[in-house]
What we know:
By secondary structure, the protein is mainly α. It has one domain (7-133): Four Helix Bundle (Hemerythrin (Met), subunit A), CATH 1.20.120. The chain has helices spanning 15-34, 38-61, 71-81, 88-97, 99-104, 111-133, and strands at 7-9, 63-65. The model has no long low-confidence stretch (mean pLDDT 93).
Amino acid sequence: MIRKGKIRKLDPTSSRNYFGKSQEFADSMRNNLLAGKWDAAGLNAVHTVISAADAILAAYGGIRSAEQDHRSAVRLLEEVLGKAVGPARRHISFVIAKKNTIEYEQRRLTKKEALAIAEHAERFLRFASEMLGKIK
């Protein structure tokens, strides 16, 4: 049973649109990494995992989180997918945990940090693609 919270009900077919967004954000992340734009790459990584999570939640649960705290998407993934979320939980959690630093802190991301965030985003994106491929 899905816990109470701000949740939007969705048509499961909307998962394609959310996954398309995640792929666009991932492309932008990759381009920003190549250009040495570490903060932009990091923020694109955050949007990549959030949109990919929305795609999974739409496809498997017909929902998405409407909370301002994006960690709620991680909790919903656990509720909807159960054990199937597996190691992907670590990847999305890592990226979302960096959101505040990227967007609101004064300091800039380093290349090392941006590459680490991007790697976790790529791994979560692969997980999303696999999960969505199972229901087509």
